[in-house]
Amino acid sequence: xxxVAAMSxxxxxxxxxxxxxxxxxxxxxxxxxxxDQVNGKYEFxxxxxxxxxxxxxxxxxxxxxxxxxxxxxxxxEEHVISHFVQEYVNARTPIPCVQCxxxxxxxxxxxxxxxxDADYVATGHYARVAKLSTDDGSDIYQLRRAIDDNKDxxxxxxxxxxxxxxxxxxxxxxxTKSAVREHARTYGLNVADKPDSHEICFVPDGQYAxxxxxxxxxxxxxxNIVNHxxxxxxxxxxxxxxxxxxxxxxxxxxxxxxxxxxxxAQSSTVTVGPRHALERTRLTASNVNWILKAPPHGAHxxxxxxxxxxxALCRVWADDKELELEFDHPQQAIAxxxxxxxxDGDLVLGGGWIE
Amino acid sequence: MRIYLDHNxxxxxDSTVVDTVSNVLRDCYGNASSVHTFGxxxxxxxxxxxxxVAALLGAKPVEIVFTGGGxxxxxxxxxxxxxxxxxxxxxxxIASTIEHEAVLNTIKDLTRHGWTATYLPVGxxxxxxxxxxxxxxxxxxxxxxxxxxxxxxxxxQPITELASxxxxxxxxxxxxxxxxxxxxxxxxxxxxxxxxSISGHKFNGPKGVGALWVRxxxxxxxxxxxxxxxxxxxxxxxxxxxxxxxGVAAQVAVDKLPGETSRLxxxxxxxxxxxxxxxxxxxLNGTGQRVSNTTxxxxxxxxxxxxxxxxxxxxxxxxxxxxxxxxxLEPSHVLRAMGFSPQRAQSSIRFSLGLGNTEEHVTRVVESxxxxxxxxxxxxxxxxxxx
Lengths: 355, 387
Description:
Chain A is an alpha/beta fold. Chain A is about 25% helix and about 30% strand. A 6-stranded antiparallel barrel of chain A has the order 12-15-14-13-16-17. Chain A has a 5-stranded parallel β-sheet with strand order 3-2-1-4-7, sandwiched between helices.
């Protein structure tokens, strides 16, 4: 079977490609060039830099598979970066990796793969896809958490459709990270000990505020920091510098710790309060995607409101556009712009964008 | 069987060139500037190569300056001419809009240091109109640089006419002949230029070696300063093995001309007409007179990058334009200058033929293309309807 392996130059996607070659597949490595790497429009973060592309190329040579760099700068700008910047302008906290998966890897890259007669796009995500046959003979695809709880990346994949999942291949879903590194060493890959990337790839050193300002200069309007009594207790240098639940970098002196509890883009106001003011028992989300179908009204499920965050038990009311959750126990720092992903055990039901 | 159709990017090295280079590397390690026997045998190799390259260009050996390749030759020509003319107050440069980056970016760099530049347009034919040079040139113009054949579309420029206009106004004329040297027997006297760049690896020689032909009496400042090699025009110990290889490549080219040129023209013409005939929505880019081995064709609705990869997986190596600009998103400046839309520019593929290509290769390409193109069109149509 011909499979396109999306290769970022990291250990995960390298091993994913390697495992597929061992299984006898006809693997073609594709690396996405997502932003101008030559003219210095951006300084680079931790993923898909020129060195990473070189790593991917070296892995492909080692595995004896063809490898190409495909240029998706335009698509990345359109689907990922502009949305990322706009969300900060709207005083929300985006996670661009979700769009990168559904609108690039399993869209533009998948289309490239189909053009090369490949049936699947494989990535180094820690997630599992299961194909089930229904009574009427059609196939359905489930998305399940990876074996390695710690590395599970289904949170970033909730927006995939059935069609996308039917073309997705996640060779690492049944492996732990340490096993993946072990494989990398066995294959003799030069990336075996390469550190994991944790940051947003197109934002250098986590300096996302600078990045947003460079892309949207009008954003850095200062504003007031107010407390819950409505008193102005400080000034800030731009609302995009804050996220719900943030404690550091407020520039306030107070006997008790203060947290960002609300952001208002219109008036550029940051509201702060004590920790308990962050607690919410309800949330709504929009642009919902259900992997199969919306759960029944009032169903007991579990929800994850951030990457690397424990799930919380809740009830859900939903249709194909929106969902509402009521948590069994109050949740802290629910940040608009983040995804909420709904699980039933290790099964991903779907998710949406927190309002 | 892999089919190589990217000879404008680089060419396979001729086996006699390979032998020459490795023999020289092994046996003739002397420094050509040394007085002793070791140095003399190295110097003799440079002399032979100089004579061979001069023969290829219809020039005198003394006019040949060896360089590290086409880009360096262009730099030496433009910066060298600019350096000489600077005190005289001529601080204006002219080039065509479809020059190679080696010329365009060198001129761009000079414009950051007080030089002004004018760029000559080309129409959809891909050829500079001499009357545009008449309009652009002034008594401040130090140098006019127009390439002999364009690397992406292959169009031949009216060098003789352009050079004569430049001379009438007291300006020097440079031509980047990287894509014609070795494909034609050139005549520097007919062309009428003052400076002419060539590159070894474009005609089955080694990479990293080239030459600038400098008409006798043309003054140039050196862009590399140091020792007195190459009559003070290019400092640094000579790349004797590479230069010897360049010389042999020039001999091989001369021996095979003009038979090879007309053979390639026939192959190219067949490839081109059969693609245009068999693939719907395909159009030729560059309708003017062209170098014998090149054709550039756009495929409506196709991303050239996707087509290039699909062809490579079938064992057919082509390019989306200049190899030097691959990996950038910018649509080809050449096709844009010809007035084509960014879409058309980004759906264009260059096929460039060379020594090893056969009728069988052409047949395979012509057969492979239509199904790939229609599949890619189908998929992009699907994508467009979804979003």
